[in-house]
Write a structure and sequence with these properties.
alpha/beta; Uracil-DNA Glycosylase, subunit E; Alpha-Beta Plaits; 5-stranded mixed sheet; 29 helices; 26 strands
Length: 760
C-alpha cells in the first residue's frame, strides 16, 4: 500500500464529498482534489455557491492503487483492502454526520449507496448505506475527458447546496394508482376529461400496448395506470370491458378541447394509430421537444429531465421488472413526472421568449413527419435485388484479387489482422487516432488511415481494400434495409436528432427502413420510385448555407456573386484564382466549391488537404486566398469566437438559441461557426415542410436542405408553384433580406431527375 493522504474539512460538516482515489498531485501534497480534478471541482463548487473549506472531502481509498480500481471488488486478492476501506468510509460518514454526501463517480456511488450506474443515478437524492442522504454526480476526471458532463454536474451541485440545509429526504408526494376495475378506470378517464391538459404514456411489448397511464393537469401529483396485459398473462380484461375502456380512452385522447402532453409523443401517437386506427390529438406539448428547444446539447431522455426538474430518484430499472405491480407503477410514474416536467418546461420556455419559436419551428413538425412516416416511399425491390447481386459479385472478385496480391488470407474487417499486415508485415508508418473516452492515442487501420497510407504509398492493394469496404457498406447499410409489408420503404424522423435543428432519421419502430437522409447517388437512389401515375419533385435550396454565411458576415463581394446568379462555383473560382470565368477549369471549380465550405466553417489546411486529395501547402494557400478575397468571413469567425467566449450562447435569425456546454477551444468555435447557418437553413426547410403539409402536398423525404414530394403527373405545375411558395422564406440578416433560390427537378425515380425550371 502506497502513502496515504488525509481527508480535509470540518467535523461535523453539512456537505461531505467522496471521490475515488488520489491522483499523483494529491499524493505529493497529501490532501484530496488538488490536482487537475481538484481544479474542476473547485470551479463547480464556486459556481454552485458552495464554499470548499466548509466541506469534508475524502475518497473511497486514500492511497493511489497500483491496479485498476475495478480489481478491488473483482479480484479476491485485493477485495479485503477494498472492503476495509469501505467500512472505514462508512465510519467516517457517521462521524462527520453530513446533511448530504456527494458521491463523485461510479466507485463512490457503489461504496456509499450500493447502487451502480453513475449516468443513471446522478442527480438522484437517495439514502446511503449509513442512512445519510446522498447525491451522486460525475467525477471531475470524467468531466476532464468529456467536458459536456459539466453542465449536469453543476446542476447536481446546485441541488447539493439546497439539500445541505436539512438532513432528511424531502420528496413530493405523488399518488400513483393502478386501476384494475372497469368502473374505477372509466371514472379515472372521466376525471382526466375535466382537465385542460392530460399527459399520457404507453408501454408496449410484442407490438401490443401493455399499459397506458394518464395524468391530468388539474391534478399533476396524480397518475393512473390502466393495465392491459403483463408477460404471458394475456388480456387482464374481458373482451367487453376492454372494448369499453378503449372506447373511453379514444374519446378522451381525441377530444379537441383537451391538449395532450407526452415525452417523445410521436412514438405513442404512431403506435396507437397503427394498432387501433385512431389519432391522438391535439398535442399541446412534448417534453422531449421542450428540452431540445431550451437545451439542445443536453440529453433528451425522460430520465435526464426527471433528474433535473423533479425530486424523484432514478426508477427506470422498473421498466424491466418481473413484478406486474412494479411495472404498472413505473408506467404511472412516467406519466406523473412527465406532467410535472411539462408545466416547468412550458414556463421556462415562455420566460426565455421561445414559446412562439417552439410552436412554429419544433412542435409544428410532429404532424408532417408522422404523415411522411405513415406514407413511406415506393421502392423497386426487384431492381434492388439485381444491384445487390451485382455488387456482391464485384466484392468477391476484388477480394480474390486482393488475396492473390497479398499472398495470404487477410480479413480486412479484423482491426488486429489489418494492423499486423500494415505495420508489421509491410512496415508502413503507424497511423493513430485519439480515443474519445480517454484521449489516448491508439493505433488504427480505419478508413482514414487507409486513405492516408494510400496517398503516401500508392499501394493499389490499399485502394482495393477501400473499394471492398465501400461496397460492403453500401450492401449492408442500404441494400439490406428491410421493407415494410407493402414493399414501401420508411424511416423514423428524429426532431431532436441534432443540436442544430436539422432532422435525423433512423429505422422505424418495426426495424424496417433506416437513415433515408443519407442515401447515396450511383444507383441506390434509383430504387426510390414514384407511385403509379405520379412523378417525383425534388426542391433544393441552392447554396443555402454559403449564402447565409455571406449575409451573416456582411461580405458584400460574396453577396454580389450570389445575387448575380449563374454558376456560383465557377464565379467563385474566377474570383479566387483571379481569372475569367471562361478560363476556370473543372478542377478549379471543384476546389472553389470545397474551399467555400471549408473556409466558412473553420476547417484547417490539413483536414482540407485530406478531403480534397491535395498537398497541405496548396490547401493552406487556397484557404488564405479565400480569406484575402472575402476578409469579412474571417472577421465573422472572430465575432463568433468572441460571443462564445463571453456568453456561450448563439442565436439564429429565426430565434433558435443554443448554449454551448463543451470546453472552449478551437473545436467549440467550429461548432459555433456551423450552428447559425446550418440551423437557419434547417428552420427554412422545416417550415417549408410544415407549409407543404398544410397545403396537402404529398411529402416523402426531407434531406437537410431539400424536400422530395410526389404528385399526379398532370398536377406538376401547380405542385411546383405551391412548393416554391413554401420554400421561399425571406430572412432578415444584418438589415438585409436574403431569399434563397430553389432548384426544382422532376423524375420517376429519385436519381434520374431532370431540371424542371430555372431558379425562381
Amino acid at each position: 500500500m502506497d502513502a496515504q493522504i488525509q481527508a480535509v474539512g470540518p467535523v461535523p460538516s453539512r456537505i461531505m464529498i467522496v471521490g475515488e482515489s488520489p491522483g499523483e498531485q494529491e499524493i505529493k501534497e497529501g490532501i484530496p482534489f488538488v490536482g487537475p480534478s481538484g481544479r474542476i471541482l473547485d470551479g463547480l463548487l464556486r459556481d454552485a455557491g458552495i464554499v470548499r473549506e466548509q466541506c469534508y472531502i475524502t475518497n473511497v481509498v486514500n492511497w493511489r492503487p497500483e491496479h485498476p480500481f475495478e480489481s478491488f471488488y473483482t479480484d479476491d486478492s485485493h477485495r479485503s483492502a477494498y472492503d476495509e476501506s469501505v467500512r472505514q468510509l462508512h465510519r467516517t460518514i457517521s462521524n462527520v454526520n453530513p446533511n448530504v454526501v456527494v458521491c463523485l463517480g461510479e466507485h463512490a456511488l457503489r461504496a456509499v449507496t450500493g447502487n451502480e450506474g453513475i449516468s443513471k443515478w446522478r442527480g438522484s437524492v437517495v439514502s446511503g448505506i449509513t442512512g445519510h442522504k446522498c447525491i451522486a454526480t460525475f467525477h471531475p476526471a470524467a468531466i476532464a475527458r468529456e467536458w459536456s458532463f459539466r453542465a449536469a454536474t453543476l446542476i447536481d451541485f446546485q441541488r447539493v447546496l439546497v439539500e445541505s440545509a436539512f438532513p432528511e429526504i424531502r420528496q413530493q408526494e405523488r399518488r400513483l394508482e393502478t386501476c384494475r376495475q372497469r368502473d374505477s378506470v372509466l371514472e379515472a378517464i372521466k376525471q382526466c376529461g375535466e382537465a385542460e391538459y392530460v399527459t399520457f404514456d404507453i408501454e408496449t411489448e410484442a407490438n401490443q400496448i401493455t399499459a397506458i397511464a394518464l395524468s391530468p393537469s388539474n391534478r399533476p401529483d396524480w397518475a393512473v395506470c390502466i393495465p392491459f396485459w403483463f408477460g404471458g398473462s394475456g388480456s387482464l380484461w374481458s373482451q367487453e370491458d376492454e372494448v369499453a375502456i378503449w372506447e373511453a380512452l379514444r374519446t378522451l385522447l381525441t377530444d379537441s378541447r383537451i391538449g395532450k402532453i407526452g415525452h417523445n409523443v410521436s412514438f405513442d401517437i404512431e403506435f396507437i394509430e397503427r394498432s387501433l386506427g385512431w389519432r391522438v390529438g391535439p398535442i399541446a406539448f412534448d417534453t422531449m421537444l421542450g428540452m431540445h428547444c431550451l437545451y439542445p446539447e443536453l440529453p433528451k431522455a425522460l430520465s435526464f429531465a426527471v433528474s433535473i426538474y423533479t425530486d424523484h430518484p432514478y426508477y427506470k430499472a422498473d421498466l424491466h421488472s418481473k413484478d406486474a405491480e412494479t411495472f404498472f407503477r413505473y408506467n404511472a410514474t412516467d406519466a406523473c413526472l412527465t406532467a410535472e416536467i411539462a408545466l416547468k418546461l412550458m414556463q421556462e420556455i415562455k420566460e426565455d421568449g421561445l414559446w412562439q419559436f417552439y410552436h412554429d419551428y419544433i412542435h409544428g413538425l410532429i404532424d408532417p413527419l408522422l404523415a411522411m412516416q405513415k406514407r413511406g416511399v415506393g421502392y423497386d425491390y426487384l431492381k434492388r435485388n439485381s444491384i445487390k447481386k451485382r455488387m456482391q459479385e464485384e466484392v468477391a472478385v476484388l477480394t480474390k484479387n486482393l488475396i492473390a496480391s497479398v499472398g495470404h488470407e487477410l480479413n480486412i474487417n479484423s482491426p488486429k489482422q489489418m494492423k499486423e499486415w500494415l505495420y508489421g508485415e509491410l512496415k508502413y508508418k503507424t497511423k493513430t487516432k485519439k480515443r474519445k473516452s480517454t484521449g489516448e492515442e491508439t493505433i488504427t487501420a480505419d478508413e482514414d488511415a487507409l486513405e492516408d497510407l494510400y496517398r503516401e504509398t500508392k499501394d493499389e492493394r490499399l485502394k482495393t481494400i477501400i473499394k471492398i469496404r465501400e461496397k460492403t457498406k453500401i450492401i449492408s447499410t442500404y441494400l439490406d434495409m428491410r421493407l415494410d409489408e407493402d414493399k414501401r420503404i420508411r424511416c423514423t424522423y428524429n426532431i431532436t436528432g441534432t443540436e442544430t435543428g436539422r432532422l435525423s432519421s433512423s429505422a422505424t419502430l418495426r426495424g424496417t427502413g433506416g437513415n433515408l437522409q443519407n442515401i447515396p447517388n450511383g444507383g441506390i437512389r434509383s430504387l426510390f420510385v414514384a407511385d403509379e401515375g405520379c412523378v417525383f419533385i425534388n426542391a433544393d435550396l441552392s447554396q443555402a448555407e454559403a449564402r447565409v454565411v455571406a449575409y451573416l458576415a456582411g461580405e458584400q463581394r460574396l453577396i454580389r456573386v450570389f445575387e448575380e446568379g449563374g454558376d456560383i462555383h465557377r464565379k467563385n473560382a474566377a474570383v479566387i484564382f483571379k481569372c475569367q470565368e471562361s478560363e476556370v477549369t473543372d478542377e478549379q471549380r471543384q476546389l472553389a466549391k470545397r474551399v467555400v465550405h471549408a473556409s466558412n466553417y473553420g476547417m484547417g489546411p490539413i483536414t482540407f488537404a485530406k478531403q480534397c486529395g491535395i498537398e497541405t501547402a496548396q490547401a493552406k494557400k487556397l484557404l488564405n486566398q479565400y480569406f484575402a478575397t472575402y476578409p469579412e468571413i474571417a472577421n465573422w469567425h472572430l465575432d463568433i469566437a468572441s460571443q462564445l467566449r463571453r456568453f456561450r450562447t448563439l442565436t439564429t435569425p429565426f430565434g433558435r438559441k443554443r448554449t454551448f456546454f463543451d470546453r472552449y477551444n478551437e473545436q467549440l468555435v467550429k461548432k459555433g461557426l456551423a450552428f447559425i447557418p446550418q440551423s437557419t437553413v434547417a428552420d427554412i426547410i422545416n417550415q417549408a415542410m410544415i407549409c407543404a403539409h398544410k397545403k396537402g402536398i404529398e411529402l416523402l423525404l426531407q434531406v437537410h436542405d431539400s424536400l422530395l414530394v410526389q404528385c399526379a403527373e398532370d398536377n406538376v405545375a401547380q405542385t411546383v408553384q405551391m412548393l416554391k411558395e413554401c420554400m421561399d422564406r425571406p430572412i432578415e440578416i444584418n438589415g438585409k433580406i436574403l431569399r434563397i433560390p430553389v432548384d426544382v427537378k422532376i423524375g420517376k425515380n429519385w436519381e434520374e431527375m431532370t431540371k424542371y425550371a430555372s431558379q425562381r
